[in-house]
Amino acid sequence: MLAHLSRLEERLGQVWPDQVYAFDLACVERQWPIYERSARGRPWDRSAALRGGIDAMWDWLRGAAQPRGFAAVCAEAVFSDTTGGRPDLTYKTVNDAEVHALFFVLHLVDLMESIEEERPEECVIWVRRTLDVVDSFISDYDYPGPNTTADYDALVDQHPLMRNAMDQQNADLALVTRTAEVASIIDQLRVQTSSQSILTDRWFPT
Question: Were both Cys, which of 33, 59, 146, 195 would link to 64 (CB 3.0–4.6 Å)?
């Protein structure tokens, strides 16, 4: 995984900001099913507002006006306090799916702030955050136990979920870097990234 991340981060450091943003949105789209499914029926569900904002970001990369204020919308969707600095957020997560949904929103805030402030170099971190979701899932449910050895890392790298996630990122990167005219590939990229969740057909045990 580390070699994969290093290669992708190096390549994304060589392309135009819009190409980086398109790749980031591809990562967001592949994680979206986690938030959407986790949020159903929950008091903190902000699926409509978040989905509308993500769609507006895709439209922007296709050539529409850049939406402003979506980072604030994402911040309003944060539903639990992870740092002790938000006593107004009293909701406590009840399962791992909710935890991942929460961190999806927190990371989305960071991403949208970086885009609005035109800091594409900070957006590259979404490459790692996407694979961290898969790594965490594998570590928690398929290979629980000590996870600090080289043998363990190799085992995770060969897990079908991780191989699929890296293949997804490679396919998305290939499309995004095919042309500097990002608007011309956005529709294809959206279809490609909406076709399968980062977790494929897996889900968190209840």
Answer: 59
Per-residue pLDDT reduced to its tens digit, 26-54? 999 999 999 999 999 999 999 999 999 99
Q: Report whether 122 contacts 114 (CB < 8 A).
A: yes
List, in order, residues 6 or more apart from 13 with CB less than 8 Å away. Answer: 121, 124
Separation of alpha carbons 9 and 32, rounded Å: 22
CA–chain centroid gap for 15, Å, is 20
Digit-coded pLDDT (tens) for 79-136: 999 888 888 999 999 999 999 999 999 999 999 999 999 998 887 788 888 899 999 9
Query: Where do the H-state alpha helices sit in 13-124?
Result: 17-39, 47-62, 70-76, 96-116, 120-123
Query: Are the C-beta atoms of residues 77 and 50 closer than 8 Å to each other?
Result: yes
| Cβ-contact 108, 28 below 8 angstroms | yes
What is the C-alpha to C-alpha distance for residues 190 and 60, in angstroms, rounded to an integer?
Answer: 13
Residue pair 108/66 in contact by the 8 Å Cβ criterion: no
Q: Which residue ranges form the domains of the chain, and what is each CATH number? A: 2-194 (1.20.1590.10)
